């Protein structure tokens, strides 16, 4: 930037924390949450794009070395999403895989998505998301009109979470890819999903159900690999 140029409002000088990073720090302090170092860096990196009015992409994966021992929980997620909401940030891609979210994840996203309609990609792989949490989250995401990719792989969706994902296939016309690989699913939910992709869906291109742990009742669980289904490899459905 030359001496005669003006920087966009909210953009940061070299060495200064960005607007999104500062708001995240303030929100963590208000909630008594410990700021996540990697997330703080990602928000700092995204602050200039936000200042230019651009949609941003955020990735804070719990298996990375900076956050491996400090994975996000519900209160941390709330601090992040509230800080983004406070600044009117338009988030296009969000990857929060390998953290430890609980039953409140749906409610937390409900508040965030009430003012944010820009989300296109949401990755929540291996987050200990429960049946109840997954069910509520899928209900909430049905009102996210731009969402095209959802990754809930390696979570225990059970009966209700899997059934809610099947309903999402029919209701969310923007959804192109749904990854439920390596999930624990009740047999009833598995049937709902395979039925939905063949009957209710008009837009989904990929439903990945590879290597599911199929639960028939509360005492027995079976792993299914290489399912024999039309146009599939390891139960990955490709809609043509």
TrEMBL record:
Domain of life assignment: Eukaryota
Pfam families noted in UniProt: LRR_6
Record InterPro entries: Leu-rich_rpt, LRR-containing_regulator, LRR_dom_sf
Keyword annotations: Repeat
Protein name: Leucine rich repeat domain-containing protein
Lineage: Eukaryota, Sar, Alveolata, Apicomplexa, Conoidasida
